[in-house]
Amino acid sequence: MTYNIICKKVELAESSKEKLLSKVRKLGKFFDDDTECRILVSMQRDEMGVEITFPYKGFIIRAESQNSDLITAADDCLTSIDRQIRKNKTKLAKRLRDDSLVHYDLDFGNSASVSEEDEFKIIKIKRIPRKPMMVEEAILQMNMLGHDFFIFNHPDTMAVNVVYRRKDGNYSLIELDQ
């Protein structure tokens, strides 16, 4: 497994990087040898922010945490990722079609900052590859990313659909007409 540590607005000593990597390596048992782990460390309002991202069988597993201590923030992230993997392991095996687990990666390098002079200000653009998936897959992916909505293509109709979490905890699906 390869590990990519990215530091924003903070410099980490080699000893801190090694402590962080030793903790993250414990989750290596869940992933293949060719998996790349992305660790983003940043300083946010006098607190260390840690975001850890793993690709897992076509899905992205991600957790983030903030704490005054780097190792405590990393522990919180790793606990969350461990819980996500264990919780969704059977769902991935039971619900998804075999061909739906085609590996894809989000392109982290395509994020860009754009400023406009209007009252609507776009601060980030994210590009993700299109991947046809069933509604259950989209909900699972949305939950693993920690988002409230997810846009995907339905494999039968290739229509763009949106699934989102309602305030009552249930899910809704929006199907766009073509």
Largest sheet: 4 strands, mixed
Strand content: 25-35%
CATH topology of the largest domain: Double Stranded RNA Binding Domain
Ends: how far apart?
A: 42 Å
Q: State the low-pLDDT regions, or none.
A: 96-118
Instruction: Give me the number of helical elements.
Output: 3
Series of H and E elements: EHEEEHHEEE
Average pLDDT works out at 80
Global structural class: alpha+beta
- Give the CATH class of the largest domain: Alpha Beta
* C-alpha Rg (nearest Å): 18 Å
CATH evolutionary superfamily of the largest domain: Ribosome hibernation promotion factor-like
Shape: globular
In CATH, the architecture of the largest domain is: 2-Layer Sandwich
What is the spatial order of strands in the main beta sheet?
1-2-3-4
Helix content: 25-40%
The number of distinct structural domains comes to: 2
Describe this structure in words.
It is a single chain. By secondary structure, the chain is an alpha+beta fold. It contains three helices and seven strands. The chain has helices spanning about 15-25, 70-95, 135-145, and strands at about 1-10, 35-45, 45-55, 60-65, 150-155, 160-165, 170-175. The strands form two sheets. Strands 1-2-3-4 form a four-stranded mixed beta sheet. It starts with a strand and ends with a strand.
Helix and strand arrangement:
Elements: E1 2-8, H1 14-24, E2 36-44, E3 47-56, E4 59-67, H2 70-95, H3 135-145, E5 149-153, E6 160-165, E7 171-175
Parallel strand pairs: 1-2
Antiparallel strand pairs: 2-3, 3-4, 5-6, 6-7
Helix pairs in contact: 1-2, 2-3
